[in-house]
Predict the structure.
Amino acid sequence: MPELPEVEVVRAGLEPAVTGARVLHVDVVDDRALTRHDGPAEDFAERLTGRTIAAAVRRGKFMWFPLVSDGSDGGARPEALVAHLGMSGQILLGRGREAAKHRRILIDVQPGGTARDGSPEVPVELEFVDQRTFGSMAIDTMVPTIDGAPAGSAGAVDSREPDAMWRRAIPTQVSHIARDPLDPAFDDDRFVAMTRKRSSGIKRVLLDQGVVSGIGNIYADESLWAAKLHFDRPADRLPRADLHRLLAEVRSVLGRALEDGGTSFDAQYVNVNGQSGYFSQRLAVYGQQGKPCPRCGTTVVREAFMNRSSHRCPVCQPAPRQRRR
């Protein structure tokens, strides 16, 4: 499943094309892509066509595109186009491209900028592709953020609207998701306090989207290896210093993954131009079972964890002692 780096790569790739763009036409090819939308395909297309997109925003693994109101809604709550990539979702950007095999939704937009000769930019297509149909798009109302800070990662603030209402609003479908470690408004002390109240293993906490978002199995394993922590170390027994160190490693891993365009093991994750990410070439432990640990040379192992797997170095990340009953 795409995690924070992969979704951020897609968001950043879409941003120049969609910011200030007007939606010209919407074609819902497969209604299964609207499982999160409250209404039929006709409603989705009608409510989106003609709207202007203010920006591309992300929190954790969710993206959304705030929709500018034309004033005809009588002051109703602001809305956004919400996108979740699920297991295999892609949003491809282009013009006149041949339809992808698993195309689910096609959105034609007119970019808001102008070409070098001063003429309007040519329309572009946003193609939502999803092989396994776990991803979705929806139009959702937005509510103010609880802390009053910008809702998620977005591009540079437009000097003409530095305090636009949408910046501090979040779609209701995303409002329960905690901030991610790359969010400027992420509260390290709050994360540490919440973590130390949980007796479960530390990896379960990293995967809990109510505590911290955007970290999936790949980056949890890589971060725990970097911090020399076993995935089942009880969170409430970890010193604050270890948790702050873990956060630093999480940010380092996510940052390096972003530099490499994310992690691609197959064609199910690509950026908006259909290109793969290359962080898989720098993975230390995830998927590296049977290979030597890059730090000490011990053979990396894979172990069962929550209906999936965890990867670790037995020497660098020793198993915790059993608790006494």
The chain has two domains: 4-171, 188-312. The helical segments are 4-18, 41-48, 188-195, 202-206, 217-227, 240-259. Residues 188-312 form a domain with the Helicase, Ruva Protein; domain 3 fold (CATH 1.10.8.50). The two ends are 37 Å apart (CA to CA).
